[in-house]
Structures are given as C-alpha cells and as structure tokens.
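Quick question, first post here. What does this chain look like in 3D?
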Amino acid sequence: MDISNQTLYQEITDKLKTVPKEVLERISAYLSEIDKNKELTNFKLSEEQKESLSKIKERPYSEHTEINIFLNEMSEKYGI
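> Answer (accepted):
Ran it through. Tokens below.
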C-alpha cells in the first residue's frame, strides 16, 4: 500500500471510529455488494452507445422522453 492509499485508509478508519453499529453494518453490506459486482465496474461502452448518449445529452429538454419510453427504446435497441 503506497502512502496515498495509507492516508486514505487512515482517514476512513478514523471516520469509522465514531459511526454507530447500524451504519457500519450498512457500510459493510455496501462494500460486499461492490466486491460482488467488480466485473460490472469495468464495462466499456461501444462507440455507437457513446454516440447515442451524446446525442441524447445534446437534446433540448423539450425533446426528452418519459423515462419508461426511453428504457423501452434502449431495451429494444440494445437488449437491456
């Protein structure tokens, strides 16, 4: 562990010393989920997906769709 990681680790450790047990349990559960889903954090968007998201981001608010319509479109197009 390098010095910057040690400093961050110490900072986190110091903060956790005063946290109630219930909060520690939630933090522990959260960390477990992160560990289980490591492979999901390394996904890459295709160039087509990046372009699609970029176009959506540039739309004026008046052209945005309801979330359920958007999710249906993405599901049909990308199978998600």
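The helical segments are 3-16, 21-36, 47-58, 67-78.
The CA atoms of residues 20 and 52 lie 44 Å apart.
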